[in-house]
Amino acid sequence: MLCWLGGMLLLGNILVLPLLLAPRRWRQPLVQWAISAVCRCFLAGAQASGLMQLDLRALDRLAGRKQLLLVPNHPSMIDAFLVLSRIPHAVCLMKASISSNMFLGAGAYLAGYVSNRFPEQMFRAAIRTLQQGNVLMIFPEGTRTTRQPVNEIGGSVALIARKAAVPLQTIIITTNSPYLSKGWKIWRPPVFPLIYRAVPGQEFSAQAPRDETTRCLQQYFEHTIRLSIDPALQLNQDAPRGPHS
Length: 245
Prior knowledge:
By secondary structure, the protein is an alpha/beta fold. It has helices at residues 2-15, 24-48, 79-84, 105-110, 119-131, 156-164, 210-224, and strands spanning 52-55, 68-72, 90-94, 114-115, 135-137, 168-175, 194-204. The chain is globular.
C-alpha cells in the first residue's frame, strides 16, 4: 500500500508540472482537487483491502466552507490524508522539508501550500491565503502527538486566525494504532486493521486575545479527547463501508 501511494504521488508530481505555465488562480484549485483525489483513492483502496476501517463522513459538511482555519489534532502521519480526502480545496501549512520531497514537493507548491521555512513569511502567506477565501489546515500541536491526548497547543494558529479574521474549526482525529505516530519507522508493519475516525469539533472565534484563544483550544482538545491513540477504538459496524465511509 505504501508503494502504491508513493507511485501515485510521484506520478502526480510529474503530471502536474506542465501547470507551472498556467495562471495561479486556475492551477491551485485543480492541483488541490488532484491531491484530494489521490488521498481518497489511497484510503478507498486500503479500506477495500481490509487494511483500514474509516469513519470520515462527518467531514463532508466542511467541504463547502470558505475562509476557515482547520485545526486537527495530530496522532499520526496519516492525518493529513484523512482530512484532505474529504475537503478537496484545503490548503496546508507544510514543513519546509516537503518542498524538496520528490513525492510531495511539486504538488504542494502548485497547490499553493504554505511553507514554514521562514516564520515571518509563513505568517504573511497564511493570513493572505485565508483572506483570499481559502480553507487553511494547520496542525496546532506543531508535530505529531507525543503525549496523550494532545501536545501543548502553540499560539500561531490563534494569531493567524485573529489577523485574518476567520474562525478556527477543530477536527477530532482518533485511531486504534500508533502506526506512523512520532518515532514509528515507516517500514515497521502495524497490526491490522487500522481504524481512523475524524469528525468536526467545536468552532472557535478568534476575536479574543491570542493567549486566551490558545488556552480555550488546549482545554477543548484535552476535555474532548480521552486518547487520540486508543487500542479499544471501534467503529459502528452498521455504518456503510467503501470509499465514502
